[in-house]
Amino acid sequence: METKKINLIVLLVLLFVCRSFSAEKLTIIPQPQSVKFTEGFFEFKSGKIAAFLADVSNREDLFAFADLKKVLQDQFQIELTKTKDKKAAQFFLISDFKKIDRDLFQKKWNVDIDENISDEGYYLFIDKKQVVALGKSSTGLFYAIQTLKQIIRQQQGEKRLPCLVIKDFPTLKIRGVLDDISRGPIPTMEFFKRNIVRFAELKFNALVYYTEHVVRTKKHGDFAPPDALTLEEIRELDKFARKYHIELVGCFQSFGHFEKILEFPQYEHLGEMSTLLTPTKKESYQLLSDIYSEVVPAYSSKNFCVLCDETWGLGKGASKEIVEKRGIEAVYADHVNWIQQELAKYGKRAWVAADVALQHQKILDLLDHRIILLPWNYSPRDSFADMLEPIRERSFDFIVTTGVSCSRRIFPALNTSLVNIKNFIRDGIRYGTSGNLTTAWDGFGLNFFSNNWFGLAYAAEKSWTGVVQEDGDFFERFTANFYGDDTGMLSSALKNLASMFQFSELQGLEWTVFFKKIIPEAGKKAQLPETQWNEIREIARQTLDYLSRAKIKFHRSDLDYLKFATKQIELMADFRLQLLSAAEKYREACLHQSDREKTKETVNLIYSDFSQLAHRWGQMREEYRKLWLGENRKHWLDVNLEKFDRMQRDIEDVLLRLKKAVAQFESGYYLPSPLEVRLAVKPLTEKFFRTWLLCGSFPNPKKNSLLPSHVPNNCVGFDTDYLEEIGGERAAHPIPGELVKRPDGSVVEWKVVTSNLGAKMDLSDKFDKKFRVVAYAYCTIFSPKADTVTAGLGSNDGIKVFVNGKKIFQVHELRLVKIDDNVIKLPLRKGENHILLKIDQGRGRWGFCFRIIDRKFRNEGYRYEIGDW
Q1: Are strands 276-277 and 206-210 parallel, antiparallel or unpaired?
Q2: Is residue 389 helix, strand or coil?
Q3: Are 130 and 92 in contact, with CB atoms under 8 Å apart?
C-alpha cells in the first residue's frame, strides 16, 4: 500500500513538473489575455490529420487553414486535410460563435463563451484529443491560428502540443506599423510581403509605408526615382495585406518634408524654404489633387496618412504676409482641412501628425473633426499626458505614435524604445486612444529594417495586451519566441547591443560616428578619445561570440544584420585604437631615425596594419551591399556605398604617403613629419561636449571700422538676437531641421554636428559665411536633481553662455581656443536644461570647446546627461 502511495506521489510530481515546464517554456507574443494550462499533451500519432472547417465557403477561413497547414508541414511534416465529418476531425476551425454548441464548451472545458469579446477575439482549446480554434470572426480565427503557429514552432520537433485553454482579444483597435520608405531604402516586393507575414503573426492590423517622392504616378512621374513604387505594386500589396487581415493605409506627405520633390526645377516654385509646400499657390493644391487622384484609390483603406509634420518654414517665405495677417494657426488649419475635404471625395479620413497643432493649440479648435490625429514622440518620457490632454479636450480621434528608436542609428536604442512604447501606450489608453502606430524611421537612409523587430514585437504586445501584464525578461521571451533560440546567447547579444548606448563615444550608435572622418587632412592635427574604445571592442567581440553560438531556428536571415551591426561597432573601436597606435609608432620612428633598420621596420609595420584596415573596410562595404539588396531595391545604394568609399580613400591615401615615406627614407633622407603622412593624432584623455546643434552663420560687422573687433559693443552681430522668431536667445529650444531667417532673407538650418578634431569644435568649415560672423551652438543637459556644476570652455573669438534662458557668462576678445580657458558655474535645474552658446568670429580661426569638469556625463547626439555611473 505504501509503495502505491509513493508511486502516486511520484506520478503527480512528474505531471506537475511537466505542466510547469510547458507553461514556462511556452512564449507567445503578444501574450494572450488569459492562458490556462491543463494536464497532458495533444499527440500527433500519424502523418496526416483532418480539420473540420465550419464555413468552407469563407475565403478568409480557407486562407487561415492554408496558413496552419503550411506550418504543420514545415515543423512536423504532417499533412493537414479538410473533412466534412466532425467525428473524423481532430482540428476544428470555427469563425462564428453562432456555429457552436455553448453547452458543449461549458461541459468539456468549463468555459462560458464570451459574446462581448471583440470581433478580433478568439479562443484556443487544446486537449489530448482535439484542437479547437474558435474566432468570433474570420479575423479572430486567423489570430487563433497565429497563436497556434507560435505554439507549434516552440515544440522543438516534438510532435505534440501542450493542453491549454486560451481566451484572447486586443486592447487597442488599431495596432499599426509605419515603415519609412522615402529616406533611402525602398524595399523589394519580396521583402514587403515577407514583412507583412511577420506583422500578421504579431497581430498588427494596420500598416503605413511613409511616402514622399517614391511613388510613380502618370500625371507627375517626373519626381519619382527609377526604383519607385508603382501604383500596380501598391494594389498588389494592398490585396496581399488584406489576406493577412492587415489594412494598408495609404500615405503621401502633404506639407512639410517636401524637399525631394521641390529640388526639381519644375516644382521648385511651389516651395517655401525648400522643404515646405507653400500654401499660397493654387498650383500646390492642384499638385496634391493630381497625386491624390491616382494614389488614394490604389489603397482600399478608408484612412489616408498625410502627416503634415514639422512645417518649420511656414510663414518664413511666400506665406510670410498671409501668416502675419491671419496667424500660423489659421493658415495651417486651412491647408489640412482642405486635404481632409479632398480625401473625403474618396471616402477617406486623413491621418495628420499632431506636433504642429500641439505647438500652436489654437489649431485644434480650427481642425475638421473627421481628421485623426497622430501625437508622436519617441523619447523615454515618464508621462505623455501633456500631449494627450489637449487632444482629448477637443474630442478628436487619435492614435499614439511611438518609435523603435532606429532613426540614424546602426542599431536601435532598445532600452529607449521599451520605455517610450510602454508609457505612451499606457497614457494613450488612459486618454482614449484608438490605437498605436509604431514608427521605423530611416534617418540617413542607411538603416536595415531587419534590426527593428525587437521594438516592433514589444509594440505589438503592448498594443494587444495593454500594459497591465508584466514584461518579465522581454529579451529572453522575444529571442525564444521570434527566433527559437533556447541557448540564451541571442538574448545576451541583444542586451550587449543595448548596453552600447552607455558609451558617450558611440554617440547613440549614430551612423555619423561610423563614417566620421578621424584621419586628419594632411597638415592638420587631431585628437581622438581613447578611454572607452577598448571596453567597447571587448563587448563587441563578446557579442559576436554570443551570436555565433546562438541556435536560430526561425528568421535566420536577421542574424546576418545583427552580426553586421556588431562588426561595425568592433571596426569603429579597432580603427580608432589602431590609428592612435600608428600615430604613436610613427612619432617614435621620427624620434629614433638613427636606427635605420628599426625605423624602416616600424613604418612597414604601420603600413601592414593600414593595409589590413583597408581590407576590412572593403569587406564591410561588400557585406553592406549584399545585406542592402537582401531587403531593398538599388535606389540609394550608390549614395551609401560612397560613404564607405570615402573612408577607404582616406585609408589608402595614408598607405600611399607611408609608401612614399619609406622610399624617401631609403633614399637617405629623413621621414616626413606626421602632419605630412596624416598621422598627427594624439589621444584625448578628457571628455568634451563634441556633438552640438549648430545654426549659422549670421553677420557680425563692426560698428566702427577703425576700432578692433574686441572693443565692447563694437560687433553688431555679437549683440544682436538673431533667434527672435523662435523665441529669442533666452527662450529658443531648437530642434534639428528648424529654420531661422537671416537679415538678408536667406535661411539657415539647425544641424546636428559632431567635432572631428577631438576637444575643439571647428566652426570655420561648417558655414557658408565665415568672416565677421556669429553662430549658435545648442545642447540639452539632463540632471537628476537641481545642481550647480563646473564647466570649462574656450573660444575663438568671443562667447556668450545662456543656461535656461539666462545669460551667465560672456567674454568678448580676440583669442585662440584653449581648453578650460574659462571655468564657470552652470546652475542646472532638475530635468532638462537648455544650453545655448553664441560664438563670434573676429578674424582668423573660429571655434570653441566645452566640457563639464566635476561630473560624469554621457550623451545621445546633442542631448547630454549627468549622473553617477
Answers
A1: unpaired
A2: helix
A3: yes
Neighbours of 703 (CB within 10 A): 11
Contact 374, 424 (CB under 8 A): no
Measured between alpha carbons, how far is 823 from 462 in angstroms, rounded to an integer? 48
Whether 58 contacts 135, CB under 8 Å: no
| Long-range contacts (CB closer than 8 Å, 24 or more residues apart) made by 385-390 | 385/427, 385/430, 385/431, 387/354, 387/358, 388/427, 388/428, 388/430, 388/431, 388/433, 389/431, 390/358, 390/361, 390/364
Can you say how many angstroms the Cα of residue 621 is from the centroid of all Cα atoms in its chain? 22
- 3-class state of residue 580 by DSSP: helix
Q: What is the pLDDT of residues 274-310, one digit of tens each?
A: 889 999 999 999 999 999 999 999 999 999 999 999 9
Grade residue 383 by pLDDT with cuts at 50, 70 and 90: very high
Rounded to whole angstroms, the Cα distance separating 276 from 266 reads: 15
DSSP state of 165: E
At 220-279, the pLDDT tens digits run: 999 999 999 999 999 999 999 999 999 999 999 999 999 999 999 999 999 987 889 999
Task: Summarize the confidence of residues 381-398 as an average pLDDT.
Answer: 97
DSSP string, 594-621: TSHHHHHHHHHHHHHHHHHHHHHHHHHH
In 48-121, which ranges are E strands? 48-53, 79-83, 91-94
Cα–Cα dist 843/136, whole Å: 76
> Can you give the pTM of this predicted structure?
0.91
